[in-house]
Amino acid sequence: MRRSSAGRTVAPQHLAVGEWTRYGLVPTSPPLWSASNTDDWRRDYANEPVRLSITARSKGSEWIVPLEVPVTIESGS
Predict the structure, then answer these.
(1) pLDDT (tens digit, 9 = 90+) per residue, 38-47?
(2) pTM for this entry
(3) Which stretch of DSSP H or E encloses residue 45?
(4) Please, are residues 12 and 21 in contact by the beta-carbon 8 Å criterion?
(5) Pairing mode, if any, of strands 61-69 and 7-9?
Protein backbone atom coordinates (compact mmCIF):
# COMPACT_ATOMS: atom_id res chain seq x y z
CA MET A 1 0.00 0.00 0.00
CA ARG A 2 1.24 3.48 -0.74
CA ARG A 3 -0.03 6.76 0.65
CA SER A 4 -1.14 9.60 -1.61
CA SER A 5 -1.85 13.18 -0.61
CA ALA A 6 -5.58 12.37 -0.63
CA GLY A 7 -5.38 9.23 1.51
CA ARG A 8 -4.27 5.64 1.17
CA THR A 9 -4.24 3.72 -2.08
CA VAL A 10 -3.68 0.13 -3.14
CA ALA A 11 -2.24 -1.34 -6.32
CA PRO A 12 -4.72 -1.82 -9.17
CA GLN A 13 -6.48 -5.16 -9.13
CA HIS A 14 -8.40 -6.91 -11.91
CA LEU A 15 -11.82 -8.19 -10.82
CA ALA A 16 -14.53 -9.65 -13.02
CA VAL A 17 -18.15 -8.59 -12.54
CA GLY A 18 -19.43 -10.25 -9.37
CA GLU A 19 -15.96 -10.89 -7.92
CA TRP A 20 -14.91 -9.23 -4.70
CA THR A 21 -11.85 -8.85 -2.55
CA ARG A 22 -11.15 -8.04 1.08
CA TYR A 23 -8.61 -5.65 2.57
CA GLY A 24 -7.48 -5.13 6.13
CA LEU A 25 -7.01 -1.61 7.47
CA VAL A 26 -4.45 -0.40 9.93
CA PRO A 27 -5.72 2.24 12.39
CA THR A 28 -4.18 5.64 11.77
CA SER A 29 -3.34 8.58 13.96
CA PRO A 30 -5.35 11.78 13.79
CA PRO A 31 -4.24 14.21 11.07
CA LEU A 32 -1.93 17.04 12.07
CA TRP A 33 -4.75 19.60 11.86
CA SER A 34 -6.90 17.69 14.38
CA ALA A 35 -7.13 18.76 18.02
CA SER A 36 -8.01 15.15 19.02
CA ASN A 37 -5.56 12.79 20.66
CA THR A 38 -5.20 9.27 19.24
CA ASP A 39 -7.59 7.60 21.72
CA ASP A 40 -10.32 10.19 21.14
CA TRP A 41 -9.82 10.00 17.35
CA ARG A 42 -10.20 6.20 17.26
CA ARG A 43 -13.20 6.28 19.60
CA ASP A 44 -14.94 8.96 17.53
CA TYR A 45 -14.52 7.00 14.29
CA ALA A 46 -14.79 3.43 15.63
CA ASN A 47 -18.27 2.78 14.21
CA GLU A 48 -18.11 5.05 11.19
CA PRO A 49 -17.99 3.67 7.62
CA VAL A 50 -14.87 3.88 5.51
CA ARG A 51 -15.31 6.11 2.47
CA LEU A 52 -13.77 4.71 -0.69
CA SER A 53 -13.29 6.06 -4.16
CA ILE A 54 -13.10 3.16 -6.62
CA THR A 55 -11.73 3.85 -10.10
CA ALA A 56 -13.12 1.32 -12.57
CA ARG A 57 -11.82 0.79 -16.10
CA SER A 58 -13.26 -1.30 -18.90
CA LYS A 59 -12.83 -1.27 -22.69
CA GLY A 60 -11.25 2.19 -22.83
CA SER A 61 -13.71 3.81 -20.40
CA GLU A 62 -13.02 4.93 -16.85
CA TRP A 63 -15.40 5.97 -14.08
CA ILE A 64 -15.20 6.64 -10.36
CA VAL A 65 -17.53 4.95 -7.90
CA PRO A 66 -17.85 6.56 -4.44
CA LEU A 67 -18.67 3.98 -1.79
CA GLU A 68 -19.18 3.84 1.98
CA VAL A 69 -18.30 0.50 3.56
CA PRO A 70 -19.34 -0.47 7.10
CA VAL A 71 -16.40 -1.33 9.33
CA THR A 72 -16.17 -4.69 11.07
CA ILE A 73 -13.50 -4.89 13.74
CA GLU A 74 -12.05 -8.38 14.01
CA SER A 75 -9.73 -9.45 16.75
CA GLY A 76 -6.38 -10.97 15.80
CA SER A 77 -5.73 -14.58 16.62
Answers:
(1) 889 888 888 8
(2) 0.58
(3) helix 38-45
(4) no
(5) unpaired
